[in-house]
Structure formats: C-alpha cells, structure tokens
Write a structure and sequence with these properties.
The chain has 354 residues and is mainly α. The protein has eleven helices and three strands, in the order E-E-E-H-H-H-H-H-H-H-H-H-H-H. A hairpin with a 3-residue loop joins strand 1 and strand 2.
Length: 354
C-alpha cells in the first residue's frame, strides 16, 4: 500500500490506491479532546471483560466433551474466538489510534489499520450469527435432518469462506470506499430478513407444540424427557435471538442514527466515528456475556435431562429385576407342582389294582 501524506494544521491527507483519506493529527477544540478521553477510558475498561468473558466461554466449551461435540456450541466457540481477537488486537489498536490523535503522532498506516480492522470481526460475526440462526432453525423445525445437514466441518468452511470474502472487501475498500457499505448493506439485509423469518417460524412451532402438550392429561416419563430436550432447544434459540438482536443494535443501529450527521464538519463527524467504533467493540463483550448466561441455563437443563434419564434407567432396571424375580418364583412353583404331580403319578402306578 502506497501512502502519501499532505499535512495541514489539524489533519493529514493519506492516499491509498488512489483514494484519499483524512486522519486527524490535532484536535480542534476542548470538546473533541474530552470526547476522545472518554472514548479512551471506556475502551480501556472494555478490554478486560471482553478478553475474560470470551476466554471463559472458550475454556468451558473446550473442557467439556459433551459441549464440544455439539454444532451449536461449536458456533459459540467460533464466535467467542472472534470476539477474543477483538479484545486482544482490535481494542488495543483502536486505543493506540485514539491516543495518537491526542499526542499529535497520528500516521496513515496506523490510522487506516485502526479504522478498517474492526470491519473484519464485525463482518465475520455477522456471518457467524447467520450460521447460528440457521442451526437453530434446522434443529427445531427439521430435527431429523439436523445431524446430517449441520456439521462442524460445514460450519467451519462457511465461516472461513465468509472471512475471506470480508477481507477481500476490506482490501477493495482502499480503492473503492463504497465497497464496505454495499457489502455490509446486502449482508445485514439478508441476515435480518432470515432472522425475522426463522424466529417467526420457531415461535409458531413452539406455540403449537405447547398447545398440544397442555391437552395431555397423563404424561409418561419418556414424554417428560423429550419435553426437557425440547426446552433446551428453545433456550438455545432464545439465546441466539438475543445475541443477534444485541449485535444489530450495537453494530448497525448507531450508523443509521448518525447518518444524518454526514453533512456536518468532517472533523466533528470523525468524533462520531470514534463512538461508532467504540460501540462496535462493546458488542464483543456483550455477546460473550449473553452467551455465558445462556450456557449456564442450558447446562442446568442438560443436567436435569440426564437426571431424568438416569431415573428412567433406574426404573427400568428395577422393573427388570422384579420381572426376573417373579419369573424365578414362577419357575420354582412350576417345578414344585411338576414334582408333586410326578410323585402322585408314581404312587398311583405302584398302587395294586383290586
């Protein structure tokens, strides 16, 4: 990437692949200085929970063979890794960019990296959340096809291809600035429409099944176990919906709100860009918190289901033991009767006929 800089009192003009970018080197007012200091403080606070919560989620899933084997938790694992990268690289890089703006040491390379780097995890997160929604849709509406259609390999290939496409769009945006806008608009629209469709279908199915279950008066142990398993699937669907909703609110709603400020001074609008990036960084911490809370609820449900299965298995063993005991008693009684009848027959055969 070839960069050339043209300096003035407050900013430098960077040229990358024939495209012009402006980077602030000196803040024009105390208002902008206070704005940036608040952003630095908030981003500094975000680093710890973002790294800690996502690391806990990753370790929890990797240590549990039961969770690690399930595609739904594999998607959460991938999402947590992406958010962890944001905490380890994205936020510190953005902090360096903010501090350079205060100290007047901004440069083209650092600024462009800090501005464009958040786009990659946001784009990959959008693709991963789309996979999460599809996984929940198939698990609830097409459970018999779930094991063959949804596999960890397919999920990894899908997310990997999405990451490559997102990276290509970011590189292209250095030449064509509207590339990210067009790609983001198409991707967000697709994910939003499918999420609305999937959540509506899931809601209708759950409502129908709840109505049919309420009509049953006598529910057997096996039906209770199936109901627990279904509740687990619904919990995961709710978790998916909450994460997707939070992602859209934090990552895409603020740009829509701030779009009306595009006609303001470019340096003033740069201050709003700082907060847009900060809110997007906060999304990585919020996602991990929602997933961590839902994992605890789902794990408790799984333990409850396992207890039900253990109790059901224990009942079967008791019935089997009782059956074998009664069978033995019946055989003993039958042997006794046969012996008595044989004895009577022998006595009758030995009795002389008069």
């Amino acid at each position: 990437m070839n960069n050339s800089a043209q300096e003035d009192a407050f900013q430098i003009s960077c040229h990358s692949f024939g495209t012009r970018h402006f980077v602030i080197t000196k803040l024009m007012s105390d208002k902008l200085l206070i704005n940036r200091i608040f952003a630095i403080v908030l981003n500094s606070i975000l680093i710890t929970p973002t790294i800690l919560l996502n690391a806990i989620a990753i370790i929890t899933i990797l240590k549990s063979s039961q969770l690690k084997s399930k595609p739904c938790y594999f998607i959460i694992l991938v999402q947590s890794v992406i958010d962890l990268v944001v905490g380890v690289l994205g936020i510190p890089l953005f902090l360096a960019f903010l501090i350079q703006g205060i100290t007047g040491t901004s440069n083209c390379v650092g600024a462009l990296l800090a501005i464009h780097f958040p786009v990659l995890p946001i784009g990959v997160s959008t693709i991963t959340l789309f996979a999460m929604t599809v996984e929940r849709y198939i698990a609830i509406l097409h459970p018999y096809a779930y094991k063959t259609v949804v596999t960890k390999k397919r999920i990894l290939v899908y997310v990997g291809c999405g990451a490559v496409v997102t990276f290509f769009v970011i590189v292209l945006s250095f030449r064509i600035q509207s590339a990210i806008t067009i790609f983001g608009t198409l991707l967000v629209t697709l994910v939003f429409l499918f999420t609305a469709f999937a959540c509506t279908r899931i809601y209708l199915v759950v409502r129908k099944l709840n109505g049919s279950q309420n009509q049953l008066s006598n529910v057997e142990e096996e039906n209770l176990t199936r109901k627990k398993l279904f509740r687990r699937e619904i919990k995961q669907a709710k978790s998916c919906f909450m994460v997707v909703t939070c992602f859209f609110i934090l990552s895409f709603l603020p740009p829509m709100v701030f779009i009306s400020y595009k006609n303001t001074d470019e340096r003033e609008f740069g201050a709003k860009d700082v907060w847009l990036c900060t809110i997007s960084m906060f999304n990585s911490s919020a996602n991990s918190r929602l997933q961590y809370d839902q994992e605890a609820e789902i794990k408790s449900l799984e333990e409850e289901v396992q207890q039900m299965r253990a109790k059901h298995s224990e009942t079967i063993q008791k019935l089997k033991a009782q059956f074998l005991h009664e069978k033995k008693q019946f055989q003993d009684q039958s042997d006794t009767r046969i012996q008595a009848m044989a004895k009577q027959a022998n006595q009758a055969s030995n009795t002389p006929i008069v």
